[in-house]
Design goal:
It is a single chain. The protein is mainly α. It contains nine helices and no strands. It has one domain (2-219). Helix 7 (162-193) packs antiparallel against helix 8. The chain is elongated and about 70 Å long.
């Protein structure tokens, strides 16, 4: 009964905005990872280059360059993971001080909001941030696995284990990048969810803007055009 009373504090517009947020998050992620063959996404195109990277590093001696690239990928992932963890802590701190936050929010929105409403809105943001943290941590670990498999690839190109292990390394690398990209999308939609503090209309607008930004970067960006030049 308590949760039913709390849910009654939100309007149908709020429910529609939250539904749009989650549906948009799932839909754009699926569309990016499973694009139509006639219009591949940047993430999809990069899988080809990751496979080529692992094939070419086989006969590269020394392999310091490859180690540096993988190290940079791990550093970037670790940075976002630590940032997400700080954001989770900050969100939990806000929930613990919802009454003071309600006073601040009313000054910005000019609408009185109960602490319970603000707590639930912050929880939605925390869902995205927590998901991003878990994805970043998993991506970081997978890049570590990839480095171990790469180190196990023989230097002899005639060795029967060389190409299979290189292919295994590429698959792990691709899986790590997929987890990283999913985490980044969670960050984007977590930022969009923060607009709910200003009402359902603001959340809808923020969701549409986030979807447009993600679509443009994956399907209409200059980086995608550059990647497609080799495919022509």
């Amino acid at each position: 009964m308590i949760w039913i009373d709390r849910l009654a504090l939100f309007s149908p517009l709020d429910y529609a905005a939250v539904a749009t947020l989650f549906i948009g998050w799932v839909s754009i992620g699926y569309f990016i990872e499973n694009p139509p063959t006639s219009r591949p996404s940047v993430s999809y195109l990069m899988t080809h280059y990751r496979k080529e990277w692992m094939r070419h590093f086989v006969d590269r001696n020394p392999r310091v360059f490859d180690a540096q690239i993988l190290g940079n990928l791990r550093q970037g992932t670790a940075f976002f993971a630590s940032t997400s963890m700080i954001a989770v802590g900050g969100g939990l701190a806000l929930i613990g001080n919802a009454e003071q936050l309600a006073g601040v929010a009313s000054e910005f929105t000019l609408v009185e909001a109960s602490p319970i409403v603000l707590e639930l809105k912050i929880m939605i943001m925390l869902i995205f941030v927590a998901n991003a943290f878990l994805k970043f941590v998993w991506a970081h670990r997978l890049f570590g696995y990839c480095s171990v498999v790469m180190a196990a690839v023989p230097n002899d190109t005639n060795d029967s284990r060389t190409l299979p292990r290189a292919d295994t390394a590429s698959e792990i690398n691709i899986t790590a990048s997929r987890s990283f990209n999913r985490a980044m999308r969670s960050v984007y939609f977590g930022l969009a969810a923060s607009a709910w503090l200003f009402g359902g209309v603001a959340l809808l607008i923020a969701t549409v803007i986030t979807l447009f930004v993600l679509w443009r970067r994956e399907f209409a960006s200059q980086s995608r055009t550059a990647l497609l030049q080799e495919q022509v």
